Amino acid sequence: MDTHTADFDRPTALERLTERLRARAAAVDAQATFPAEDVADVRAAGWLAAPLPRRFGGQGFGTEPDGALGLLALLSALGRGSIATGRLFEAHVNALKLVSAYGTEDQLARVAADVHAGHLFGLWVTEAPPGLTLRHGVLRGRKSICSGAGHVTRALVTAQAGHDDPVMALISLRPDERVVPATWHLAGVRGAVTAAMELSGLQAEVIGQPGDYLRQPEFSAGAWRTSAVTLGAMQALSACVRDILVERGRAKNPHQLERVGKLRIAEQTARLWLEHAAPIAEGMHAPGDVAGLVNLARIAVEAAALQMIELAQRALGIAAFMAGSEPERLMRDLATYLRQPAPDETLTEAAAWFMTRDLPC
Questions:
Q1: CB atoms within 10 A of CB 343
Q2: Cβ count within 10 A of residue 272
Q3: Residues 6 or more apart in contact with residue 148 via CB below 8 angstroms
Q4: 15, 22, 110, 355: which sits with the fewest CB atoms below 10 Å from its CB?
């Protein structure tokens, strides 16, 4: 579907997509298989191209300031249906954002053509010893935590190229190639099919300059997108708990009502933080303000989600731990997805920045 005719803004379109993802989520989790039908739905609706700048046929979701709230709605809708699919799409957005920010116009044009052709992009930055190197345009080594392994057909990776700071490099892949047989399995977000990838011998094209991947504020600012997927999963868990309590005839129990009220507060806390942080992250603000505010939002969402997991467990009792049930899967996926790196450092850095400044409005 041409992205100019895709139904981006009507809530019903996102609701339909969410329900389709939700209907498949249990089977995807049980089999730990790539959500091919989910990605096909996202592709058919034109949403793979939504993050591209408008001049390249996108909607600017994540690449232009006024696309922030549209992207928030899309990422949270995906998270409500399937954290795994939301995880894959968020990485796709992240890769396109980085090429848009640091690549040349010609590079972005070629990436846009690939997106319109249906390619799903990945972002692989976690090293497997001894690390990934780039010499004379050829990669040598592995990446260790690669979501979409064997299914992503374009990926942005970080590699050492003779500088102190890593470079970003763009690679093309064929499906089902270069996946290292798994020696470990994640407990949650299983549909993201995260594995190591052997990249030795692949041709790669450098994007930007050494150190661009670590450049602020984008290095920290992108965390709001991960939190947006988390918000969707929180909304799904809140609704799941409510529905189960109604089915059990426990909807009027005062102790359960207290828990449901706190679930709603946690859900709204996360939403309000993100609705404030997303436009600032994508707008023209001081880098320190952007990084600091998004880091605070990330920690606020994490705290609200962890509180929600505890409340759900108390509300549902042992039923919350029935393997493969909807609440168990949602909580397992949430707990896994929340484990983003360095939360303590993230909080203290943000607090230090705002010790002498007010939060941006």
A1: 15
A2: 12
A3: 34, 88, 91, 120, 122, 192, 193
A4: 355
- Whether 358 maps to a domain, the answer reads no
Give yes or no: residues 297 and 248 share one domain. yes
Q: pLDDT class for 11, splitting at 50, 70, 90?
A: low
Residues 139 and 244 in one domain: no
Of all residues in the chain, what percent carry a pLDDT higher than 70?
97
Residues 6+ away with beta carbon under 8 Å from 129:
none
* 5 is a domain residue: no
User: For 77-92, how does the pLDDT look when each residue is reduced to its tens digit (9 = 90+)?
Assistant: 999 999 999 999 999 9
Structural domain containing residue 180: 122-210
CA-closest candidate to residue 14, choices 95, 60, 79, 63: 79
Residue that is last in its domain, among 210, 230, 249: 210
Question: Is 63:99 a contact under the CB 8 Å cutoff?
Answer: no
| Residue 129: CATH number of its domain | 2.40.110.10
- In-domain check, residue 343: yes
For strands 167-172 and 154-159, give the pairing.
antiparallel
Burial of 306 from C-beta contacts in 10 A (0-12 / 13-18 / 19+): middle
Instruction: Report yes or no: 115 and 52 within 8 Å, Cβ to Cβ.
Output: yes
**pLDDT above 90: percentage of residues in the chain:** 91
pLDDT at 10: 57
127 and 166, same domain (yes or no)? yes
Buried b (16+ CB within 10 A) or exposed e, 120-138: bbbbbbebbeeebebeeee
| One domain for residues 232 and 251 | yes
